[in-house]
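User: Run a structure prediction on this.
Assistant: Running it now.
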Amino acid sequence: MASITLTDLGKVYTGGTRAVGGVNIDIADGEMIVLVGPSGCGKSTLLRMVAGLETISEGTVKIGDRVVNNVEPADRDIAMVFQNYALYPHMTVRQNLAYGLKNRRTPRAEIDRRVDEAAAILQIGPFLDRKPRALSGGQRQRVAMGRAIVREPAAFLFDEPLSNLDAKLRVQMRLEIRELQRRLRTTSLYVTHDQLEAMTLADRLVVLNGGRVEQIGTPIEVYRRPASAFVAGFIGSPAMNLIPARAVPHLPGSAHAGLIGIRPEDLTPATDGQIEMTISAIEELGAQRLVHGRVNGELLTVTLPPGAPLPETLRLTTPPKALHLFDATTGQRIGQNLP
């Protein structure tokens, strides 16, 4: 295992298009870092630079104590897991797992040990003699992870590995990946556009926007104290309400911020509430309901428990400590707010 250090890392394509700029991340030995952000934010490009599949325009990538900018992918001591599995269809599961080790002239006894150990960890022992076409999507993804595990690399790199799975299987697989990473304690860099997946898996999140880092922190830190309006609106489901301060002039901080952020779960019905919302739609989700409406023309979402019918107009209150203040021009956080 090894740490990974990215210093002033940048990628500029021919023609001057900048995909990644000035990224600095220190990934500790055994840590799982998740790169999260919308499509086109540079997260996959960043991962591919670490892997050696994209050339580096600026800065350095260090794995352990070695700068690997000019080191071939095969010599970086990393293993990748892709979204498309990349299994050899004509080989059995056992042959797929052993293929890379065989090419490296690993002794047969060592290959067998590593394959059997990976199969036991991933519970794919009964499928070792099957070919990929005889496996489900989840089983194929386990084989793809097994192929990475047998390498016993310094680091795992995951490029949206669950994108091709259905919703229920994605939940199961992300829990399995997290359990596996904690068990192996292998340094891991994981890319996803799914913020719920990111929150579930990460020791720390790196939120990217336009090729640059918006915030680095534990999932709960990023959720409770988003560094910018972009992070506030991206992390959380349902997303944080971001309302122009002029629309809620009676809330604390309205005179000092351009945008006020309120999590839907931090709004509570109250007869003397400062916020008056006209309800436009209600989503019944079983354990909770999402109530959507407008406040002075601005959209607002409230998370409420299921219950009695609601009036057309709902008065709401929120504790001052639950308010997030952002600058209207820069989008950056103002003040401390939540502890």
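The mean pLDDT is 92.
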